[in-house]
Amino acid sequence: MTLPSDTSALANQGRLSGLRARVFAPTSVQKLLAFGSLVLLLIFFSFASPAFMQMDNILGILQATAVNGVLAIACTFVIITGGIDLSVGTLMTFTAVICGVFLTYWHLPMWIGVIAAIATGAICGTISGTLTAKMKIPPFIATLGMMMLLKGLSLVVSADKPIYFTDTENFYMISQDSLIGHVLPSLPIPNAVLILFFLAVLSSITLNRTALGRYTFALGSNEEAVRLSGVNVDRWKIAIYGLGGAICGFAGLLIASRLNSAQPALGQGYELEAIAAVVIGGTSLSGGSGTILGTIIGAFIMSVLTNGLRIMSVAQEWQIVVTGLIIILAVYADILRRRKG
What we know:
ABC_transp_permease; mainly alpha; transmembrane; two-stranded antiparallel sheet; membrane; cell membrane
């Protein structure tokens, strides 16, 4: 008997996505709990320090959330498939360095540097997906190797020194300028936040309204069942990792614009905050469930917590301890949730 092709297998998407919706989809209660936790953190830090609610500090939180949020969106796609991507932080740095090479070293137009950063992210993500899908290397090992590889390449390409964008006119505007602020001066929301929300809406539509999104959930729910349905699982998995890499390219542009430089030693450690935001937002590390909205809420929780602890003069080492505890609690909550399911 001949297995159906990818085209005919689309008929199975309804059954696969229906199973995912009934069994694995996060409930609205979980989202409300995450949102409620965010509100409580805002209230607590507002009373703990008068400086917390000042406009400059709020803008700092928004800028930090923009970068972490974009990385978390990239992780969401991969984690829903049941995989993991530890390379998002160093990939962000590598795309920023590539952008710096195009704009500062080669003096090319800014739009070419932007496309180069996004394309570089997509290529690196595709390589990670190929290592996982074709070579059957576990995602943890494949992306760990990619993380170290990209960290080294960033240092090699930049000659182990920052690349500054001082000669690139208006590059800072990508992240730091405010289109809304020009219209409403009392509401200077950075462009980075607008890009975050734009990507979040686009990713949410992709995840819930396209074949790529349906297969993302299906792979995390039961990859073998999808394979037996005649679907080219490897192709879709590579596409998902490639999409995640392209999104990391946007994060690279945001952080490079924010710092007005590409810092080759930056990036490692960002993947932990991104994964924590995804899990806090309700996405299961076992795959099969997750929402972009939950991820954005999780990203804001991480940014508010980090900023609030810093405002309260909590030592950095204790900030790391708190972040680790939150990750453990979030994963344990996911385990309990799946047991009940």
